[in-house]
Design a protein that fits this description.
single chain, 548 residues, alpha+beta, 9-stranded antiparallel beta sheet, 6-stranded antiparallel beta sheet
Length: 548
């Protein structure tokens, strides 16, 4: 529950501050009104399709496919859908089961003899994230079948097969390799031949990084009125069968209709796929499950990583399909899905009235706050699009809505944030209240940039503090470290020893990117300057004072 709160708060969306009752008799108009408002908050930038009982109620783009070139989204826009890929992998597995080539009880050792405990790990375990496999890998290693199988086997398992639940991309990558063994085709071709082609999914594929199409959406890391940072795309061999597919709302709607007609897999297979697995009633065999939004049950899967956020949801008993594809990291499509379902059910989603605060009124609240219990966590506050924004544990800034001079509401997390002053009149504490949960308190702390890496004496060890930079006393936003001895190797800039806020250099041009690649240096003694005076173009300089 604590982890869920963290993600909800980090990715939450500002509430709408206007009533929707005027559109109660017209759900399509109400949904469009709501989504247009979210797009105005930069909480949606993509394409949405909503259908009920065979009728498409809404199929519309919001915001920009390419902001720099002012190309607007429409229903033909293509997006990376990341973990929605798992539903395709699941569907392919059930197709192979129907073809008598596989069973849910087949053991991993059948395909990888000698895999540790492979006699006790089943296909069912891989589908339901109950295998216990620890899928940690070295990011610099080649992400091949041989490497992954060997590394997964070497890693210490999270738990014995079937004894727990832990979301595992590696389990789905193994399923992808098993699909290749059983079909004699690449995973990509197996999915194309079995699912894409029969359904006419002509705007779907795998190599998004290499895709050349006028419908391709630019991936954005940060997306605000003042700042739009393009995100780095993954090579599709990385996520593989756990998250490599790209698609459009139209193609995914065709995919949805195949579950109504049972064109790809049978009704009985579908029933198993949509049923809860062991140890987690909210996850089936490749599908997320919920009865919170609808008693009859919502079957869905979200997808989110660099540059994109998406959700594919269906309510089978009501014949409802909701597809939200978004090309920046500010959005939470699961939240939007819930609100759309409320509107389809005739509910109001009226929010509290927003209090408009000036930048001068918000400025005293800006800073770094640390939560100590129940687990250490940093919260950063800033001003974004003329509103207060919070960044929880490096998840990225998201706006919250002011309901008073020092009180803010985050609707999705049902969280109230209240800032209070100390005896010196400084806002020094942030209290977070969320329904029945215990209140959390965060104390204001001094925030410091530092460096780490094998080029430094510290190395990459997280158990010791980063080598601290000092902020220039006359130029706020300029940080320096003088005469530091560096070895030949790599380093990065990091805020408060937190990997949620690190900077690297993608192009070797001394301009920095969030979570960019390591910076390479030769041995010597250096003056290092980190210049954050322009938050849209962070940069650094290295001045070598002496050679070894």
């Amino acid at each position: 529950m604590k982890k869920q709160w963290l993600m909800m708060l980090a990715l939450g969306l500002a509430l709408i501050s206007c009533a929707q009752t005027k559109d109660k008799g017209n759900p399509a108009a109400g949904i469009d009104h709501f989504l247009t408002h979210q797009a105005g908050l930069n909480k949606l930038n993509g394409t949405v399709l909503v259908a009920k009982q065979g009728h498409v109620l809404l199929n519309k783009g919001y915001g920009y496919r390419n902001a720099e070139d002012q190309v607007l989204h429409d229903s033909s826009s293509i997006f990376q859908i990341y973990s929605i890929t798992k539903t395709f992998t699941s569907t392919m597995i059930f197709r192979l089961i129907e073809e008598k080539k596989l069973s849910l009880d087949d053991r991993l050792s059948k395909f990888y003899p000698g895999f540790p405990n492979g006699d006790n790990i089943t296909i069912d375990h891989l589908l339901t994230h109950t295998s216990g496999i620890n899928d940690q890998t070295d990011s610099d290693a080649p992400q091949t079948e041989a490497y992954r199988v060997a590394q997964f086997g070497k890693n210490i398992p999270h738990f014995a097969p079937g004894d727990g639940w832990a979301y595992c991309n590696g389990g789905y990558q193994l399923l992808g390799y098993i699909i290749q063994q059983l079909t004699g085709l690449s995973y990509e071709r197996a999915i194309r031949e079995t699912i894409f082609k029969p359904l006419g999914m002509t705007h779907s594929g795998f190599d998004y990084k290499g895709l050349s199409s006028p419908h391709k959406s630019v991936a954005y890391h940060r997306f605000s009125n003042e700042r739009k940072d393009v995100a780095q795309l993954y090579d599709s061999t990385g996520p593989f069968a756990a998250g490599s597919i790209y698609s459009s709302v139209g193609d995914l709607f065709r995919y949805y209709k195949s579950f109504r007609s049972h064109k790809i897999i049978s009704e009985s297979s579908q029933a198993i796929a949509f049923a809860p697995g062991k140890n987690n009633e909210r996850y089936g065999h490749g599908w997320q499950l919920s009865k919170v939004l609808m008693k009859s049950g919502v079957v869905s899967h979200s997808g989110g990583a660099t540059g994109f956020r998406s959700n594919f949801a269906m309510v089978p008993e009501e014949d409802i399909c909701i597809i939200i594809l978004n090309n920046h990291e500010n959005a939470n499509p699961e939240y939007l899905t819930g609100k759309i379902i409320d509107l389809l059910n005739g509910k109001n989603i009226e929010g509290a009235q927003e209090v408009k605060l000036t930048s001068a009124e918000l400025a005293p609240l800006i800073g770094a706050y640390r939560i100590s219990e129940p687990q250490p966590m940093m919260i950063y506050t800033s001003i974004m699009d003329a509103r207060l924004a919070i960044d929880v544990a490096g998840q990225g800034p998201t706006v919250v809505i002011a309901t008073g001079a020092h009180t803010f509401l985050q609707d999705e997390a049902d969280a109230v944030l209240t800032f209070s002053k100390d005896v010196h009149g400084v806002f020094s504490e942030l209290e977070i209240s969320q329904g029945w949960m215990k209140k959390l308190r965060a104390k204001r702390v001094a925030s410091t940039w530092g460096i780490l890496g094998d080029a430094t004496a510290k190395g990459w060890d997280d158990s010791t503090p980063d080598l601290r930079l000092a902020e220039d006393s006359t130029r706020k936003g300029v940080w320096r470290i003088h005469a530091i001895e560096m070895k030949q190797g790599d380093f990065k800039f990091r805020l408060d020893n937190d990997w949620g806020h690190n900077l690297g250099d993608l192009h070797g041009d001394q301009l920095l990117e969030d979570s960019g690649p390591n910076i390479r240096v030769e041995a010597g003694v250096y003056d290092i300057v980190l210049d954050l005076t322009d938050p849209t173009r962070p940069r650094y300089t290295l001045a070598r004072l002496s050679h070894p």
